Inverse folding.
């Protein structure tokens, strides 16, 4: 199974809470948010096809990265592929974070997207909204976006926001 990848930053300190992150940028996004900081990832053409196993082999080359972040584009437009990757990474004890323009509630109601969602630790959800842009927010671009503790939210059946250590 192959993922369409726009790019990878193997040791990022700005893409997720919890330490150094191996960040994967998915190619393709229909949200097309005005002011998006990754507009080159919007097209579903382009990118580089990589197998799940190729991505995992590359990930383990970077032992400082204990977090894997899925960004984009929007990884939820490749839900089966990222679900498989996330399952394999969880077995290897990685903390998993994803960014999406979808809302958590929308992902729960889509069988394929939920299969990916359930493997995540944190989800930054919601479209970037230029009119709500706030450069003082950690790990988000606009104030409508939430950092959701996915596992706690699933176990309590209500949205639980992640509290950042400040």
């Amino acid at each position: 199974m192959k993922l369409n990848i726009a790019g990878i930053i193997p040791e990022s300190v700005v893409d997720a809470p919890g330490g150094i992150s191996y960040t994967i940028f998915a190619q393709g996004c229909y949200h097309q948010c005005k002011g998006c900081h990754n507009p080159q990832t919007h097209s579903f053409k382009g990118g580089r096809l990589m197998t799940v196993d190729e991505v995992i082999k590359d990930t383990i080359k970077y032992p400082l990265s204990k977090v894997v972040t899925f960004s984009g584009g929007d990884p939820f437009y490749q839900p089966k592929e990222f679900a498989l990757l996330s399952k394999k990474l969880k077995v290897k004890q990685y903390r998993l974070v994803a960014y999406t323009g979808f809302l958590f509630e929308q992902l729960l109601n889509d069988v394929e997207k939920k299969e990916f969602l359930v493997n995540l630790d944190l989800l930054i959800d919601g479209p970037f909204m230029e009119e709500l842009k706030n450069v003082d927010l950690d790990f988000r671009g606009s104030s409508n976006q939430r950092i959701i503790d996915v596992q706690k939210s699933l176990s309590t059946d209500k949205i639980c926001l992640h509290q950042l250590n400040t």
Summary: The longest helix spans residues 79-91. The two ends are 39 Å apart (CA to CA).
